[in-house]
Amino acid sequence: MSKRLVVALSGGVGGAKLALGLSRVLPAEELLVVANTGDDFEHLGLSISPDVDTLTYVLAGLDNPVAGWGRRDETWSFMDSIGELGGEGWFRLGDRDLALHVERTRRLRLGQTLSEVTSDICRRLGIGVRVVPMSDDRVRTRVRGDAGWIDFQDYFVRQQCRPVVHELAFDGATFARPQADIMAALHSGDVRAVIICPSNPFISIEPILAMSGMRDAIKVSGAPVVAVSPIIGGQAVKGPTAKMMGELGLEASAAGVAARYGDLLDGYIVDHADADGIGTVGARVTIAKTLMTSLQDRETLARVTLDAADALASQR
Question: At 273, phi and psi to the nearest 5?
């Protein structure tokens, strides 16, 4: 019997696009989406989980396709009022989006885990696939710039990625336990593929991989690991990936991302724009259209990625 379960590691916008594609070409019970929580933080007294929420909104068909984050048909009365009162308005929370954060915070204070809250919210929004936070323990991404260490959202949103990045740290990752469903899946013997979505490797995927036991569990699963490059023609589709790579002394290219993942990868999907410059990356390379501008693009790339994983598995 062929193995069925696909485990997808994802950040926010780019990862959510492929996660949506996977959700449309796989039965719901065959997909487990692992969301980065290193971006999580507390703001205005609320618990915010940006990547979990982006995945949730995208899979529920509620996302804002223009901004790439938040909900569509949003209104901003709350933020307008916060500004009038002299409050912190640098992290924008729309009125509809705010309801999710308020409800999450309420449930967490009652003692529910982030996994439990996420699962129930997904169910209520009609999402069939499992979306799980990478951990119910606290992990926080930190960035060291010229002025010292700052919280990730300070770097990413308040300062709009302007500081030069010298170093990254994932506070709490050493002691954080990967979410139980993730570990159960990876040890089940039923994993068809581990897919690394086209998310920023430093701030979206590495917090997941930094947790104790996570890399070992992926290897023990015996499944092929296939990543989709977030870089096309030397540029990130969205976000600071290319900028960060240059500042960290790495080649801002699809090959550079593969080098960062190293021997974790068995397969690698790159865009046609990078076909000539990919060189030898230590993984089987598949050339495809990786820019996902339509729903069909998302589904097609999902199928290409799964086919690449299946081809690798058949050779084992």
Answer: -65, -20
Tokens 């919210």, located at residue:
121
Whether the per-residue pLDDT at 102 is higher than 80: the answer is yes
Domain boundaries defined on the chain: 5-314
The pTM of the whole model exceeds 0.90: yes
Pick the CATH number of 5-314 from 3.40.50.10680, 3.40.50.300, 3.10.20.740, 1.10.3720.10: 3.40.50.10680
DSSP state of 237: S
Average pLDDT over residues 189-198: 97
DSSP class of 137: S
Structure tokens at 91: 């992290």
* Residues 6+ positions from 79 with CB-CB distance below 8 Å: 89, 92, 93, 94
* Neighbouring residues of 28: CB distance < 8 A, sequence distance ≥ 6: 128, 129
- The pLDDT, as a whole number, for residue 1 is 47
Average pLDDT, the chain: 95
Cβ(10)–Cβ(228) below 8 Å: no
pLDDT at site 83: 93
